[in-house]
Design brief:
Layout lengths: L8 H8 L3 H8 L4 H9 L3 H10 L2 H9 L3 H9 L3 H10 L2 H10 L2 H8 L4 H11 L16 E2 L5 H11 L8 E5 L5 E6 H6 L17 E2 L4 H11 L3 E5 L5 E6 H19 L14 H28 L1 H6 L7 H24 L8 H31 L1 H31 L9 H24 L4
Parallel strand pairs: 1-2, 4-5
Antiparallel strand pairs: 2-3, 5-6
Length: about 450
């Protein structure tokens, strides 16, 4: 059934009456995201019919905005001719993303439908590593020669501009396609048509290697405030460009992945809405089972200090307070470090300086929380318990801060995603360390041997 609450009444009426021509006219001027939202609120059969009536370019842009599972579902309902037409209208980078997501057999079937030129282009882009910039780039860009006049360059831009992914930046290359400069379009518009292109060049540009990790391209765009980056090979040959809209998708994927890892969940490869119950279970169960066994360390610590706990039962009242506070402090530090490392705010070589800073922060936090804990311990258990709880809080928060700070650096040094230093992992480690600190101090202050 159509979700009438999310679709305008006049659009709903057109769909119910199957007035597809009128519907096409109504949505042709809509922004692509709104067309996507409309299609997602249609039944499968109506969605396919609606997709078929869209103009070629509009259908290709709309298709590129769907999740991989939604793209696959549409492809299954389309004829070979419709699929061939769709593939030919997709931008090269969007076509590569589609082929990359499909199973090998399905990818091969689709590649058989491509034109010779599109097939050559697809194989070229798919030849780069999976997470590389080469998979994201498009070969549709505008390039001019340095010896051309500005007038000649503008004529070329007008002639070839419709085939380019973007007109914001015009690239200057030599006859071997080596990149010489990247100039904004406004320079051409505002310059004397009789001048040569080389007269407005400054020979400075920001580029990225086709083999570079796509996260590096995201950082470059953020650092230099660019909307498009030229992609070069090892000899400086211009292979293509990567645009900010593709890199924003990458940034969103990477941030989502870090959020999942930060909660001890294996990253989802699809949207939550499209993920099955079994996939959600399988993505979460492994870490939860691992943490169960890690928690056995905490049980072992309590067992080792059973005598001191039995002699001062009031100590048990403060176990949740201390280990939760330590876990929270450690999780805060880990989150700050993971994000700082991810965006390049902190480099690996700065670990000692960062650790020193967090030691001071940990001491400050520990003393403030320790004073509050001492007052609670004094009230609930007397002077000795107050001292034990207060001192324990200071040391636990300090140690938790250090662990939360250094673990992301250690994981990065081992080439492991620092996001693995998740809140559940940090709190589990700090729990065991906190219990040991607490009972050790209690043994000394209360005077019971270990």
């Amino acid at each position: 059934m159509i979700n009438k609450e999310l679709i305008k009444p006049e659009i709903t009426e057109l769909i119910i009456n199957q007035e597809w021509s009128e519907l096409r006219k109504s949505v042709e001027e809509w922004p692509i995201p709104e067309i996507v939202d409309l299609m997602l609120n249609l039944e499968k059969k109506e969605r396919v019919v609606f997709f078929r009536i869209l103009p070629r370019e509009l259908s290709a842009e709309t298709f590129a905005h769907f999740e991989p599972e939604q793209q696959n579902a549409l492809l299954l309902e389309m004829t070979d001719d419709e699929t061939r037409q769709l593939l030919s209208n997709l931008a090269p980078d969007d076509r590569t993303a589609l082929l990359d997501e499909l199973p090998g057999q399905a990818t091969q079937q689709l590649m058989n439908l491509l034109s010779p030129q599109d097939l050559k282009e697809a194989r070229f882009l798919l030849g780069y590593p999976e997470e590389s910039v080469g998979r994201l780039m498009t070969p549709d860009y505008l390039a001019v020669r340095p010896h051309w006049t500005i007038g000649q360059a503008l004529d070329h831009i007008r002639k070839m501009g419709r085939q380019s992914e973007t007109l914001n930046v015009i690239y200057v290359t030599d006859p071997a396609w080596k990149l010489l400069d990247a100039l904004e379009l406004q320079l051409f518009i505002l310059s004397d048509p009789e001048k040569k292109v080389e007269d407005i060049m400054d020979d400075t540009f920001i580029s990225v290697s086709a083999f570079e990790d796509r996260e590096e391209a995201v950082q470059i765009v953020q650092k230099y405030d660019k909307t498009v980056l030229p992609v070069l090979d090892s000899d400086g040959i211009l292979l293509g460009i990567v645009t900010v809209d593709d890199l924003l998708d990458v940034a969103e994927e990477e941030t989502t992945e870090d959020f999942h890892k930060g909660a001890a969940v294996a990253p989802l490869r699809t949207s939550y809405r499209e993920t099955s119950i079994w996939d959600l279970f399988s993505k979460r169960i492994l870490w939860l089972v691992i943490l169960v066994f890690v928690n056995l360390v905490s049980s072992g610590v309590i067992e080792a200090f059973e005598e001191i706990l039995a002699s001062a039962l009031a100590l048990a009242f403060f176990i949740p307070l201390l280990i939760d506070s330590g876990g929270n402090a450690g999780a805060q530090s880990a989150t700050l470090m993971v994000r700082a490392i991810a965006i390049g705010d902190i480099e690996l070589r700065q670990w000692l300086q960062t650790a020193g800073k967090e030691v001071l922060v940990g001491i400050s936090l520990g003393v403030a929380m320790g004073l509050a804990s001492w007052a609670l311990g004094l009230y609930r258990g007397g002077a000795e318990i107050g001292i034990v709880v207060g001192l324990s809080m200071v040391l636990i928060v300090l140690v938790a801060n250090i662990i939360g700070t250094l673990l992301p650096f250690l994981l990065t040094r081992l080439n492991i995603d620092p996001a693995v230093a998740s809140s559940p992992l940090i709190t589990t480690i700090v729990d065991a360390a906190g219990l040991f600190i607490y009972f050790s101090i209690a043994s000394v202050v209360i005077g019971v041997s270990m």
